[in-house]
User: Fold this.
Amino acid sequence: MANLSYPQRRKIQIYLIAAMLAILCCILVACNSDNSYSVAGETVSEPTHFMAKFMIIINNALGGGVASFGWTVVLFTVILRLILSPLDVWQKIIARKNAKAMERMKPQLEVLQARYADDKQRLQQEQMALYKKEKYSTMGMCLPTIVTFVVFFVVFAGFRQMVGYQFAKDYKECVNAYNQSIAEQIEEAKDSEEWAGVIVDNGDGKWDVDDIAKTENGATFYAKAKENAQQAVYDVYYSADQVKIRSWLWIKNIFVSDNWSEAVPDFATVTGQKGMATSKLTGITIDEYNDVMGKLLGTGGYGKNGKWNGLLILPVLSIALSILSTTLLNKANGQAPAAPAATVQGEDADKAKAQQQTAKMMQYIMPLMIGVFAIFYSGAFALYMFTSSACAILFQLTFNLIAKLVDKSREGKSGVAKR
Assistant:
């Protein structure tokens, strides 16, 4: 390590930190990766991911478990940003120092680029020596970005569990209402003259569909009982408290994407067979699910038959704010000057152009990734990304304002001292 050059040591340090954080991210996500929920038992087990648990605590604090989950996400995001604010402050202080250092170095870097235009290795050595002299931190700017990616995927794992948990809870409440309605109708009909011989006690101590005779009259009774049970499910699902939990402003179901997806997820969605595998409900068949949720499927959204859960507003806003946040951050960072056109020709000119295009593309990787998640994942996670970007922009603007005031104060003191 001692025999390595300064740039080489810096690169190794960055790679080691990146590897450590990547391993930590994998551990945090892998240890809490299970997003399957069994609905075969009496109750649904709560999420195991610490981020999902934190969201449940916030939701309970806001409204005893019946607060709008959308506002829970907003508060969760603000709290998380506050917890991570020391990292943000550190990043912005480094960026500010780098920007000032780059202002001082810019004339010298241009001279070096002209002097060593034909010796790229010497140019890099001289540039890194100048960076070291002016304390321009390359590692300090990379580390917060790496941490941001780690936090992104850890939070994503938490939301994935939370969405699956809510789907399981919704179905469990619906199936309980369905079974209770069937049982009540059987209990009422077993001694009536109208359905004499239709209800046959099978000796298991409970009245359910197994007690309905497999006859034509039994089929008639079950069809009517099923229709009434589905209405009972409809009433439970669209009760005031349940609607309050799922809805947020224009989004009908915050646990479903803010796009053309149906507000009430179908069997393939809740069992992870399509979409981004937000959940994996187990202990259920497609026939059971469709029997219970039959009256709900295709309802509750925009347009005919409730086709659209949302209006694509959150994905568009998330992408726009992410681009704005990235632009503000890049302006705050000091950028090295491009090599003079006169010194860059032929193959080197093509390489320089390719590097510029790559750097520009890198600025939009995060907004593009956010756009994909916002469109195809749950509205809850899209709301998290939107709120997070809004907080980042507000924090950046506040930091810029404070920094300008500090500069003016120092300039005033410096002017007084010179007098």
The first helix runs from residue 6 to 30. The two ends are 50 Å apart (CA to CA). The first strand starts at residue 36 and ends at 38. Residues 29 and 188 are 51 Å apart (CA to CA).
